Amino acid sequence: MDQKAPTPKNSAQMIWGCALVLAGVGVFIRIPQVMPKIAQIESFANATGVIRVCFYLMGIILIGGGIQKVYRYVKSSKPDSNP
Fold first, then answer.
1. pTM
2. Domain residue spans of the chain
3. Which residues fall within 8 angstroms of residue 13, CB to CB, at 6 or more apart?
4. Can you give the three-state secondary structure of 45-70, one letter per residue?
């Protein structure tokens, strides 16, 4: 019966991981709305493809980092089955 109670630091990591995932999802939702406005800016008009790829990459990194934090939290909060 040697269960670890989640410490406030670990709980904060869980909250931070969820926030990262939500921010990544928000990036994916927002890209189609923002790209036409970016394309109207003369200096960015020729680079919309690169900008779109960068935004999607940023969303993937945010979601990946958030999932990693949540996974590590869940993994560390499970009790060890080895005696």
1. 0.79
2. 32-77
3. 69, 72, 73
4. HHHHHHHHHHHHHHHHHHHHHHHHHH
Residues 26 and 5: their CA atoms lie apart, in Å, by 32
Q: What is the pLDDT of residues 33-74, one digit of tens each?
A: 999 999 999 998 899 999 999 999 999 999 999 999 999 998
Place of tokens 């958030």: 66
In a 10 Å sphere around its CB, with 0-12 CB exposed, 13-18 middle and 19+ buried, how is residue 49 labelled? exposed
CA atoms of 59 and 44, how far apart (whole Å): 20
In one letter, which amino acid is 24? G
Please spell the DSSP secondary structure of 2-50, one letter per residue.
-PPPPPHHHHHHHHHHHHHHHHHHHHHHHHHHHHHHHHHSGGGGGGHHH
pLDDT tens for 14-27 read: 999 999 999 999 99
Determine the residue type at 65. Answer: G
Q: Which residue has the tokens 């080895």?
A: 82
